[in-house]
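Lesson 9: reading folded outputs for more than one chain in a single document. The general rule is that every protein is listed as its sequence immediately followed by its structure tokens, and records are never interleaved. Here is the first one.
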Amino acid sequence: MLPGVKNLINRGQKVKGRVVFMQKNVLDINALTSAQSLPGILEGGGQFAKRFGKNIFDTCTAGLGCAVALRLISATTADESGKGKVGERTLLEGFVTSAPILGTGQNTYDVHFKWDSEMGIPGAFYIENFMLGEFFLISLTLEDIPNQGDINFVCNSWIYNAQKYTTARVFFANKTYLPSETPPPLVYYRQEELKTLRGDGTGKRLEWERIYDYDVYNDVGNPDCKASLARPVIGGSKTLPYPRRGRTGRKPSKKGYKLSILS
């Protein structure tokens, strides 16, 4: 354990962070107002209530802070299974009105993480959104980490309601590694994220998914509408393996199982 980290905890301090985000329809004002009242939070966060218990709502004020939770993941300390230790869920705190210059429509919230001396240096974090609507997460910055300075997480990603995901959304510190040099406690999380992005080649792609899966061009015609609109599959053969398109998982045409229909 780095001495600075242990001293930080011994002083009874927490790891401070700032989250920068943008609401839908700055980006849908309805998504924001749905979380601006206690009923709105309760309606959009049934799963949130189950995880945190009713008492959290007794002290929460209205706003995004009570509907978004984060957990830090250690890049230097692993649990018994070899995975980086995961900290406690932490809610966003007060809206920051005196933050440095932000982009148009951007907002900042403070967050303070409990992080004991055995947790090491944070290298990733989970985030969960319990609102009905999504928001655009721009970044998280952990401030004044001993022997590290600020740790930046550049995210630039839409965060949908947590129930829409089969695996938790995870982000990694803005530091690149060769695969062989990835800190061992982060290897599991990197591999799981890669599996999520690759998908399994099944199902229809949904708005909140981030799967980068590929398919042949089998959707350039519509034989179900008219026989003359049938078109051959482009790509996927031994002689012409390419081009490829993003796989959507749309249902195949009725008159040609290898063909998909644009929708």
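And here is the second record, again sequence then tokens.
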Amino acid sequence: MNGEIKTGMKIKMMGTQNVYEVKETGIFNPKPSKVESLGSGEVGYVTCNIKNAKEVIIGDTITGFNRPSPTPLPAYKKVNPMVFCGMYPVNAKDYELLKEAIEKLRLSDASFIFEPESSATLGFGFRCGFLGLLHMEIIHERLQREYGLNLISTTPSVIYKVYETRGKSSQVDNPSKYPKTEMIDHTEEPFVKVHIIFPKDYLGDMMELCKAKRGEYVSTHFLDPQKVEVIFEMPLSEIITDFYDKIKSLTSGYGSLD
């Protein structure tokens, strides 16, 4: 990796093959500070005539347009979202603001994905994918706090792999896209291994709760005379909504989930 980026030169994004003119280069000191150029090994920012945030791929390689590199640098490993939900603006007029906000958030979060969707009840919004519940809550909070949006989020769901009777398979993250029952041969869903630590007095109740959530028992470990750990393999769909709250309620606040 070598060379430099100067104001006025043309650069090319190797992932999209888009060409832009550099309007400004700078460093963070800690506030943005303009400099003449950025050389190899320096950390800074580049301002270009990019009209849409969707044109930028996180981890892309920037090369000179006149003397391009033959191969790009290794990009980020793609991360597949595990939890999905719909996000809709309370005020339908804020749809474009929501679209612009999530496109900007996408620039700093490669694991966050979204696509437009519509609901007869909620109107126009976006189907968003996250790494987990915490990731979903952070994105929702940032959209409200940083962009002043008032949002409605649908109940989170997971992605299912559906095998149809005609031999075709597909990944479904939205209940509205689920095939008809007579067309389904079988379905696969994501499982997770959960470790639950709590006082031993609640062992019986905890085992019943996990089995009610379709959990498959793995093992039990007594960490000390008063504390026990149980391990279950459970469907992700069963624990993304109220499972943690039920553990806290069942153990008077002493239980923990990993």
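What the second record shows: The chain has four domains: 4-64, 83-157, 159-188, 191-257.
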